[in-house]
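Sequence, please.
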């Protein structure tokens, strides 16, 4: 998100997240596979992050709408908005970024993207746990209503839908705001 007078380039809608459509390992009998390393993003990650962002949005159609901006706008968005205004964490498998999480104080989960080859392995749960640790007083996010896998994922992790729109976003696609508040038992 940029400030109202920020000359940042037009970019992908930062208010929508994508999460694994497949269940996490707690709901499958698949053998355990080591999870990618999670670390804070650096400016040197910008190119790989832009490619990851584009890849996940492309492979997630039609569950989520395609980015309305041209591909060449994604790198400037990552460099001038995402890495400057968000707290970004990346999941790295060997030398390849396979997921990322973008947070903005006080409670915004702006992005959670994971490549399809790494969904259903618990990486989304791990990244969401990190988000809850970083913002222990609660989180909110926007997700497309068509992204049923993400909605189920967030609901399994304690998020509740609190607001719906008919497309008050760049993609003009119906979305839902979801909120997580910690419970007295640590949920």
């Amino acid at each position: 998100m940029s400030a109202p007078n920020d000359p940042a380039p037009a970019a992908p809608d930062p208010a929508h997240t994508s999460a694994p459509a497949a269940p996490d390992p707690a709901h499958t009998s698949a053998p355990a596979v080591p999870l990618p390393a999670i670390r804070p993003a650096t400016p040197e990650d910008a190119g790989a992050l832009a490619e990851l962002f584009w890849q996940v949005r492309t492979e997630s159609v039609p569950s989520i709408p395609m980015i309305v901006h041209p591909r060449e706008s994604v790198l400037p968005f990552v460099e001038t908005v995402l890495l400057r205004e968000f707290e970004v964490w990346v999941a790295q498998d060997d030398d390849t970024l396979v997921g990322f999480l973008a947070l903005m104080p006080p409670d915004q989960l702006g992005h959670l993207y994971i490549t399809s080859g790494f969904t259903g392995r618990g990486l989304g749960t791990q990244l969401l746990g990190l988000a809850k640790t970083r913002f222990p007083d609660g989180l909110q996010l926007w997700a497309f209503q068509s992204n049923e896998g993400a909605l189920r994922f967030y609901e399994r992790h304690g998020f509740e839908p609190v607001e719906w729109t008919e497309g008050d976003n760049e993609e003009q696609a119906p979305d839902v705001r979801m909120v997580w508040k910690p419970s007295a038992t640590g949920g």
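Confidence is low (pLDDT under 50) at residues 1-15, 18-29.
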